[in-house]
Amino acid sequence: MILTVASGKGGTGKTTIAASLAVAIADEFPLYLDCDVEAPNAHIFLSPEFTQTQRVNQLVPSIDETRCDGCGRCAEVCQYHAIVVLGDKVLVFPELCHGCGSCTLQCPQRAIEEVPNVLGLLEAGTAREGIRFARGVLEIGQPMAVPIIRALKRWGPFGDIDTVIRDAPPGVSCPVVETMSGADFVLLVTEPTPFGLHDLHLAVQLAGELGLPVGVVVNREGIGDGRVDEYCRSVNIPVLLRIPFSERIGRALARGENLVEVLPEYLPLFRGLYVDIRSRLIEREGMR
Amino acid sequence: MKQLVILSGKGGTGKTSIAGALSHLANENGGSKSIVIADADVDAANLELILSPRYTQREDFWSGKIAAIDQELCEACGECMQVCRFDAINEASDGYSVDPFACEGCAACFYACPSEAVTMKDQLAGAWFRSDSRYGVLYHAALRPAQENSGKLVTLLKQRAKQRALDKKCDLLIVDGPPGIGCPVISALSGADVALIVAEPSKAGVHDMRRIVDTADHFDLPCVLCVNKTDLSTEGSREIEGYCRDKGLKQVGAIPFDIDVPCAMAQGQTVVAYRPDGPASLAIREMWRRIEAVLWGPE
Predict the structure, then answer these.
(1) When you count CB atoms within 10 A of the terminal residue's CB, does the N or C end of chain A come out lower?
(2) CATH number corresponding to A2-25+163-287
(3) Could you tell me if the ipTM is greater than 0.90?
């Protein structure tokens, strides 16, 4: 089972929930993927020792000026304006390039060679209680997170694994799509505030477009109002877990402690959450 | 006209609540500073929820293309699948089709197809709005879920907001940035005079604060910094103070956790309007005076 933990709004507790879940089901030997490559934080709560690394490169064009006749075909086919031809000079902007290779294929002079451009890094190792952990880290100044998330999903430093937890970045655009796609279930973490509700609604729409079943975790219950619950009832989305607002929890998380460490009574609840999601998926499978 | 962008790296540290509060404060004393506001978090635009905007303009945002294969013309040669590097072409018994979520619109298949069966279709990626709010004109947007090009939408929104601020001779453009350090953040910070980094003193907050400060440095953007929810961790707050000293960053504010912030949000208000004399409001007011000094020099 591949489970993506997402939220729409940032800072609602995605990593808190995902890392607690990983600890609660450590005996299933899950793989934890920190897909928030712009601001990866799960290592703080799971303390992995990284033993394997791999660079994520994207191929970007490099022009062989001895062959190039300045015809401009490369700039014409590039959809991202990553190549500009000025007279007989060809300028490449690697930060705009998506690495599609279309310019290379279309160049009539075969004057384009592709060279690697470093976008970021993948790291993997074993975390607490045998949890297998991998993450991607976007290089500072690089705009594109998606190729790193894609590479992280494909990277197999641990071989085949039955249970995967993907910790998503905030938002509802391409990096989140990449983190959700191919998952079996999306767990949406929200807080009961107007911001939380607004962004939950968007995340539910996104999961719907991808055809994925969702469940909700309400975090910091007590700080806002009841509109998240009303919304979930009205669209028939199950609230699978609730965590109360508490300064004690907030302070412990700020120190980098795992929620189930601070409140061990939550261990069976997270275990139950996992069992609940599993049975929902089996039921869904059965209905098909 | 000055441009202030509010960033954080980590999500949920309080960027939008602070952007709303600063918009209120800029308008105090009979509107001492005229402002334009842009919500550059186009994925999850929340500023509108506390500024009660009245929409005055709405424009579609068309961006990016996605490939489509005409089954009538397709000769099933498989060339499209060969050239696609995004695994966006699916092979079925009756020919080839495009996975719209995986397609990045590169058009490699369009150029490679020998039977002209591929067309590139424009995508309606969202909409952007101009609104009157109680603190000034607000530019905001809604990217449709699952769309790409949030960076392009941010750039467009900021261009409109900046033009408005220049036309109306406003003093300040406040840009509420998205979380992270990638494409939409780079679009949000470009052209700004100063970034206000909102750091949370948790371990995760400090980690991500370093990444966003490094990103701002990378693009030569000067930063000032505030700590939000200081009482979450005195140790973390001290670490941030030390980090500011080492980096020569000016710390312009220290805002305590205050339950009035979510309460104000639930009422659709900024915290400084909701409870002007509460602890968070007082701290943000003090911070605004320091930011004014950074932007326009001491009185």
Answers:
(1) C
(2) 3.40.50.300
(3) yes
